[in-house]
Amino acid sequence: MGLSVVILAAGQGTRMRSALPKVLHKLAHKPLVEHVIDRARQLGAEDIHVVYGHGGDAVPTTLAHCDVDWVKQAQQLGTGHAVAQAIPHIPAGREVLVLYGDVPLTSAEILKNLIELARHSGFGLLTITLDDATGYGRILRDADGRVVRIIEHKDATEAERAITEVNTGILATSRENLARWLEQLDNDNAQGEYYLTDIIAMAVADGIDVSTTSPGDEFEVLGVNNKRQLAALERAYQRQQAECLMDGGVTLRDPARIDIRGNVRCGTDVVMDVNIILEGDVEI
Fold first, then answer.
1. 108 plus 169 within the same structural domain
2. Could you tell me the pLDDT band of residue 100, with boundaries at 50, 70 and 90?
3. Residue 221: inside a domain
4. How far apart are the first and last CA of the chain?
5. 156 to each of 45, 130, 159, 223, how far by Cα in Å?
6. Angle in degrees, 0-180, between the axes of helices 108-121 and 32-42, rounded to the nearest 10
7. Contacts of residue 166, Cβ cutoff 8 Å, sequence gap at least 6
8. Is the pTM of this model over 0.85?
């Protein structure tokens, strides 16, 4: 079964206070959504569908060098509606992975695990437990620990809001299942939107076991809604890159004072002093 990836990138990002579409803001000198596209390629996806909306053609124009299928969501009616726009472009028989254009640091390893879960059980869902789950959809489980549905924060009771396991939105299932469930969505909720999360209950009703896995680090599933969050993810990314260099034998005088904005290859006995910026393809 081949893999198709749908990347949702239609959000406006009003809290960024910028005319630039949110997914085009840069992390390590590269647009957020391009990090996600690169990750999809790492997974060996046969086709990548990027759903865009706010900002008009700025997203596909800026990323014209990316070999993806651009799908326009003319009206922003929710995540379920966004994924539905891509379904006609996905060949039959594919496994579908849904990612987000403003969540740039999810590792290929955890996504591979998620895809394998989906192929085994029929549905894979990425969740995480947070100290502060405000704003996130909560994972509701039965007495045996099986996922039964997701309740969005605005629709949740106080008891449900006390749940700390939350939905990241990242999921995998078959194209056929996804298309069937999306057709059944309605917008009878506090937001008046078609929630992708409602397909979880549909999967359970169809007798499918919703299998879950979680990332090793919280930053892997954090999105960007404002400049503060963008800066925090920049630091997480740079810390990750510094650790990779040190694991490869590079001596960094101060791992907090190096910025990598491209690809770096190092030989033996490389020592880097403080306040270094490496851009493009660099070999040392």
1. yes
2. very high
3. no
4. 41
5. 35, 17, 8, 21
6. 60
7. 127, 128, 129, 130, 133, 136, 137, 138, 139
8. yes
How crowded is residue 123: how many other Cβ atoms within 10 Å of its Cβ?
26
**What is the DSSP secondary-structure string of the chain?**
--EEEEEEE----GGG-SSS-GGGSEETTEEHHHHHHHHHHHTT-SEEEEEEBTBTTHHHHHTTTS--EEEE-SS---HHHHHHHHGGGSPTT-EEEEEETT-----HHHHHHHHHHHHHHEEEEEEEE-S--TTSPEEEE-TTS-EEEEE-GGG--HHHHT--EEEEEEEEEEHHHHHHHHHT----STT-S--GGGHHHHHHHTT-EEEEE--SSGGGG---SSHHHHHHHHHHHHHHHHHHHHHTT-EES-GGGEEEEEEEE--SS-EE-SSEEEEEEEE-
Query: 167, 184, 216 — which closes off a domain?
Result: 216
> Cβ neighbours of residue 240 under 8 Å, at least 6 residues apart?
105
Among candidate residues 15, 180, 228, 265, the one labeled active-site is: 15
Domain of residue 208: give its range.
3-216
- Which tokens sit at 228? 């503060």
Measuring CA to CA, which residue among 229, 231, 100, 93 is closest to residue 171?
Answer: 100
Let me know if 15 is a catalytic residue.
yes
pLDDT in tens, 190-245: 788 999 999 999 999 999 999 999 999 999 999 999 999 999 999 999 999 999 99
Choose the final residue of a domain: 185, 216, 247. 216
Asked whether the beta carbons of 103 and 9 are under 8 A apart, the reply is no
